[in-house]
Amino acid sequence: MTDNFEFPRTPDIDDGTQPLDGRTLEALRALYAPPADERFWDITEQRVMARVLGRSSTEWWQVLNGWVHTAAVAAAVAIIVAGALLVTADRSAVDPGYATVEAIADEPLAFSFDVQSPSQVRVNDSPAPGVLPR
Amino acid sequence: MAATLAFPIPLSIPPRVVDAAAGPPAIDPLSHERAIIVRAQRGDSGAFSALVRIHQRRAYAVARAIVGTHEDAEDAIQEAFLHAYRALERFRPDQAFGAWLHRIVVNASLDLTRRRKVRAAEELPESIAAPFRDAAEADDLRTRLTEALARLTERQRAVIVLHDVEGYKHAEIGTMLNIPEGTARSDLHHARKMLRHLLGDLRNGL
User: Fold this and answer.
1) What pLDDT, in 10s, does the model give residues A2-42?
2) Can you give the pTM of this predicted structure?
3) Helices H, strands E: what count in chain B?
4) Which of A107-121, B93-107, B113-127 has the highest mean pLDDT?
5) How far apart are alpha carbons A104 and B92 in whole angstroms?
6) Which residues make Cβ contacts (< 8 Å) with residue A16, sequence separation at least 6?
7) Which tens digits make up the pLDDT trace of B23-39?
8) In this structure, are residues A38 and B68 in contact, taking their beta carbons and an 8 Å threshold?
9) Are residues B193 and A24, on separate chains, in Cβ contact within 8 Å?
C-alpha cells in the first residue's frame, strides 16, 4: 500500500537537478560557442603545425644531444691515442738512436741466465770451511 | 546472402556486417582515425595535421569551458596539441583518442589558468576572466550571465559548460577533470542553482 509513496516535491526548492531554462541555456551556449569562421580553424591548425614542426626539428637535435657525452669521450680517447702515436713517430724521426734502441729491445736475447734452484743457492752461499759464520 | 566482415574490427565496437551486394563498405570513422593515429605515430606530420583538424573544435570547447576566454582557449589548445604530439608515441590504440586528448586539453587549460592567476595577482588583483572583453556589445542577459559565471568556482563553471553546453556526461566530466562522478554532479547542481539565483530577477522579468 505504501510501495508507491513518494514525498511530494516542493516546487520552490531548487536542488539544481532541474535544467536551466531555455533562454539562459541559449545565452550560455552563445557565450561559449566556438568561432563559426572556417578561417579561424585553418589558422589554428597552421599555428599548431608550425609549433609542432618547430618542436620536431628541435627534438631531432635533442636526439643528437644524447650522443654528445659519448662522442666527447670517444674524441678525447682518439686525441690521446693520436698524440701518443705522434710523439712516438717524432722521437723515431728525430733520434735515430732511439729507433736502434727500440730495434735492439725487440730482438731476442743472445744469451740466457741459468736460474739456480734455492737449494743450490744455499750450497753456494755457505761459508768456506774454517770461516766463522756471522 | 553471404555476409562478410569489412575489416579487422577493434574490440570496443561491435562487428560490422555488410551486405556484399550493397557495394563497398562505408568507412568506419573509428578505424579511419586509428589509421591516421598510427601514421602520425610513425612521424607523418600530415596525419597529425588531420587529427588537429578533426579534434580542434571539441578541444576548443573543452578549453574554453575551463579558461573562460576565447584568447586563452586558443592558447590552451595550441599547447595541448603540442603536448599531444610529444606524447603521441605513448598513446595506446585501445584508448579513445578524443578522451585522451581532452585530458591533455584540460591539463593545458588548468596550467594556463594557474599562470594567468599568478600574473593577474601581480598586475590586476580585481580582474576576472570575462568571456567578453567589451560588455557593451553584449545584451543584458549575456552581461549578467557573464557576471554570474564569474561568481562560480572554476570547477563549477567548467562542469556546467561541459555538461549543459557541450553535452558531456557526468562520468566523462569526472574523468576529464579528474574528480569523482558524484562531485561533477554536485558541482553542476550548485552551478545551476547559483545561476538561477543570480539571474532570478532577470528571468522573472522575461
Assistant:
1) 555 665 555 566 677 888 888 889 999 998 989 999 999 99
2) 0.60
3) 9, 2
4) B93-107
5) 70
6) B188, B189, B190, B191, B192, B193
7) 555 667 778 888 999 99
8) no
9) no
CA separation for the pair B105, B59 (Å, rounded): 6
Contact B199 A28 (CB under 8 A): no
Partner B contacted by A57 (CB < 8 A)? no
Q: Per-residue pLDDT for B6 more than 70?
A: no
Asked if A31's CB is within 8 angstroms of B164's CB, the reply is: no
Locate the chain B residue with the closest alpha carbon to A14: B193
Cβ contact A31–B131 (<8 Å): yes
B49, B70, B142: residue with CB nearest A27: B142
* Radius of gyration of the CA atoms of chain B, in A: 21
A20/B contact by beta carbon, under 8 A: yes
Displacement of CA A47 from its chain's centroid (Å): 33
DSSP B67-132: H-SHHHHHHHHHHHHHHHHHHGGG--TTS-HHHHHHHHHHHHHHHHHHHHHHHHHHH-TT----S-
> In this predicted model, what pLDDT tens digit does every residue of A47-94 receive, in sequence order?
999 998 885 544 555 556 656 778 888 889 999 999 888 888 776 666
| A12 in B contact zone (CB under 8 Å) | no
Q: Report ipTM for this prediction.
A: 0.71
B115 touches chain A (CB under 8 A): no
Distance from the B64 Cα atom to the nearest Cα atom in chain A, whole angstroms: 7
pLDDT tens figures, B153-196:
999 999 999 999 999 999 999 999 999 999 999 999 999 999 99
B164 CB neighbours in chain A (<8 A) are 19-20, 25, 28
Q: Please compute Rg for chain A using Cα positions.
A: 48
- Between chains, do A16 and B193 touch, taking CB under 8 Å as contact? yes
Neighbours of A62 (CB within 10 A): 10
Nearest to B56 among A41, A53, A59 (CB): A41
